[in-house]
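Retro notes, item 3 of 5
We never archived the inputs for the zinc ion complex last cycle. Fixing that now. Sequence and ligand:
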Amino acid sequence: MNKELLKQNYYQAVNEKWLDKAVIPGDQPAISAFLELHLDIEKTLMDLVAKWNDDQKGLNENLLKFVKLYKMASDFEKRESLGSKPIEPVLKKILKLTSLKDLEDNYQDLVFDSISLPFHFHVMQDFKNSNNQVFYFGAAKLFLPDTSYYQNEERKQQLIGLFTHTTTQLMSLYGYQPEEINQLLSEALKFDSLLVPVTKSSVEAADYVKMYNPLSAKEIKEKIKNFDLIGKAESAVEQSVDKLIATNLDFINAFDEIINEENFKFIKSWMIVSNLISFSSHLTDAIRVAGGAFTRALSGIKEARSKEKDAFYYAYNSFSQVVGLYYGETYFGPKAKEDVRHMVHEMVDVYKERIKDNTWLEDETKEKALKKVAALSVHVGYPDELPKYYEQADIKNYDEGSNLLLESIKLRKLIYKDNLNRFNNPPNKNLWMMPASMVNAYYSPQNNQIVFPAAILQKPYYSLEQTASENYGGIGAVMAHEISHAFDNNGAKFDETGSLANWWTEKDLTAFKEKSKDMIALFDGVETGYGKCNGELTVSENIADSGGLRAALEASKKLPDHDYELFFKNWARVWRKKGSLEYNQLLLTIDVHGPAILRANMQLSNLPEFQDYYKLSKEDKMYLAKEKMVSIW
Ligand SMILES: [Zn+2]
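Structure as it came back at the time:
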């Protein structure tokens, strides 16, 4: 490693060779340690499905359904011959609507057909009572990825221009004439513009407790005269609904001003355009490629993925947890599951020690924090249970009169019904939010639960071929990162049962808020080479990284053969990443995770051990004065 460079840019020094050589695949926005693992798994799964395509011996019912869908998705000739016909029933349902009243009368039918609508209901755990599930209500997303893009007139014109251009091409493939396209698009954009002032920015949405705005049925009825929201919620679950949680009060307050008969023509055009885009991936090759053009342009992705890969993803996205379970059981297995579970518990113990030794918390708060760590439930490798809708799915192929778009609607209907069935019921905490084949991990504040899918439990995060210090700098820090989410600016508002409740003493809460502000300041405005980091947007992840890194280092220091450099190097290695300029800049605006280079460098600069080990001085760019370091967990 370049001894001078490591004091100026540790990330660059560790990853120099990789950064020189790494090539961003044409159909990806970036390449990174995460993505390299993802691409390996993708290859494994694509090889598997190609094998299963010819021989289904030994496959369980759910996997057989997955293969059946894959066969349909990869019958490209059939897809071409069907053209855009499969979307006609969807369009017919939208075109039939002549008024807002009509939309109201047909709302449930449209929802069940997974037709994009300007607002939606979703059942989730009640923040105030994690053992019950209630209705959340919110508006559709904007066409551009963040409200900030609408605020800068030049940027807005550029991106709306790009959206108009790519959507015009898509719509002409569907057979629309230029005048029709112009009218539909301008009306759809008009509706989009009405939503902008009542949509949260990514920074506002990062404070997710603010998503919780309970309104009683009576309050909703008083506020909203143009649409019977409570009635719709009640008929969906066939029981009385006494409250809705508004994910955004601004939208609720402006509902009647936006959703009214006068604006209905804009709403209708918005529905046509939105659904032409959202269903495009299930149709011909030209249509699916055109349908993804805007997203690719936003992320700087050079080309659409191959049709073979796309066919795989069509089937995989529909049965991801089923395939993930197979992946976990086959490539990870019960022994690794036990090993890793052991590591997590070790990390939990280190965390408990750190809370006990904490110098800025009062005993009362410490006790509650310890209770929360003790109550953490840990899930590793693959889930014990899958959602029921996979079993309920009944896949019909072309010969049986179906097509990809119809199969997708059928499956999404089962998923939505499954979601509605959760209303007024306790959650099933065995279910995971991501497949075991996904390179990721998460903390659920409502379940006070951490989940480590099998896919992430590989090199460079974790390997028996690596030293223990390297594993602590990789998966150890990831594990402690997830535990730290229980105590980030969002997680800290939930108690050990997963309910929103203040368990802090006033003094400690004030101190925590101050420390969170210090973390915001540490990252805010720091240059990355492609733009500045937003400290507020990324604060929860930066708190988790910082806590995770410190806890993992403490665990590593206990090893007889602890090696600081191997630990620091692997931390910098797991964040290696090369992205397109467009993608990097998009992430700076919308991603709650800090930019990769800062996750590596700033977090290390913020560690006294790193500074001491490399004997950094004021002249070094990696140097951060100790009194400026932010230590929370
Ligand atoms: Zn995180």
